[in-house]
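User: Just a sanity check before I run the rest of the batch. Below are the structure tokens for the first item. I only need the designed sequence back.
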């Protein structure tokens, strides 16, 4: 198998960006680093004519941004944050949408490695996503929104436990006794911190919390809310852990002629990332997706530069905030 730029970088103990600068010869690199890179090139038999064809000039590198649902405005805002930082650094970004399909994720990772991207920012499809090929290649990788249990990587996300606590404290202060939760499909503990945060507010009370799983889509939010309304007659409040499922929940509530907060109180998530035509006032726990993209990008730049400022398993948590009420439309 022919040696790749990642192999040269690993042998020389530098980033792929440093290898690119050394081989192009158009940007300053210290003598010591240059000698290490050229020694690795000779030892691995790396073909310089291949380098000339495949390597991009400094300032013209490429990143892969792979998200789970590009139709979700949250991820388009993340992409804007990534591109803002990338553009400042002369980096081009290509975006892949996995639609939460591990096979599609695998194809995008293969493409990213074949193109010898300088780095990858990834929204996992599940906690068990296989990123071993990226790790083996030595390509810098940062995950966003949720961590992987299958690999220890830098992750930029919001403190969702605090987000759940904000929702729980709000509903507790309103005196609700039976709270339904529409949560995402993954039962893995690290992917349920929003639910755990809410539950922590009611450990010493007799408030009933009933959990129904959805698929993080509008239709899933409608179905889960319908099941709760049909089967929990005493339900007086609802916490929905995803923006699209919140829209689905509101549509289901509206279709039954129920009012918010008169008949049922609702706390949603990330409603600041949605725009709709007909509005109802709903409280929302909000993240800053653009900021997440910016921080993830700067983390990736640190990884590329090999500054040592980013531990391989670092979890970078941003603060959410409670907004009440947010004007959210149903259609």
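Assistant: Here's the designed sequence for the first item:
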């Amino acid at each position: 198998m022919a040696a790749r730029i990642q192999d040269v970088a690993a042998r020389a103990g530098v980033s792929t960006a440093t290898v690119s600068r050394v081989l192009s010869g158009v940007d300053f690199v210290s003598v010591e680093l240059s000698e290490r890179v050229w020694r690795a090139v000779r030892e691995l038999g790396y073909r310089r004519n291949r380098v000339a064809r495949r390597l991009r000039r400094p300032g013209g590198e490429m990143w892969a941004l792979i998200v789970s649902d590009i139709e979700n405005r949250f991820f388009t805002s993340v992409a804007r944050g990534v591109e803002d930082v990338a553009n400042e650094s002369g980096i081009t970004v290509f975006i892949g949408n996995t639609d939460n399909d591990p096979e599609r994720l695998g194809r995008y990772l293969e493409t990213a490695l074949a193109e010898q991207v300088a780095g990858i920012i990834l929204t996992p499809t599940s906690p068990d996503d296989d990123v071993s090929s990226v790790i083996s290649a030595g390509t810098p990788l940062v995950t966003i929104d949720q961590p992987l249990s299958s690999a220890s990587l830098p992750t930029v996300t919001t403190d969702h436990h605090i987000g759940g606590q904000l929702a729980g404290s709000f509903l507790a202060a309103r005196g609700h006794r039976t709270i339904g939760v529409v949560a995402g499909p993954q039962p893995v503990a690290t992917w349920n911190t929003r639910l755990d945060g809410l539950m922590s507010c009611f450990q010493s009370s007799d408030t009933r919390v009933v959990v129904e799983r959805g698929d993080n889509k509008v239709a899933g939010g409608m179905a889960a809310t319908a099941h709760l309304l049909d089967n929990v007659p005493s339900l007086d409040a609802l916490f929905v852990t995803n923006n699209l499922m919140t829209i689905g929940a509101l549509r289901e509530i509206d279709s039954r002629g129920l009012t918010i907060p008169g008949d049922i109180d609702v706390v949603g998530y990330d409603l600041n990332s949605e725009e709709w035509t007909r509005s109802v006032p709903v409280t929302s726990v909000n993240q800053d997706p653009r900021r997440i993209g910016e921080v993830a990008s700067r983390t990736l730049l640190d990884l590329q530069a090999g500054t040592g400022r980013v531990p391989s398993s670092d979890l970078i948590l941003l603060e959410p905030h409670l907004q009440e009420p947010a004007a959210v439309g149903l259609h």
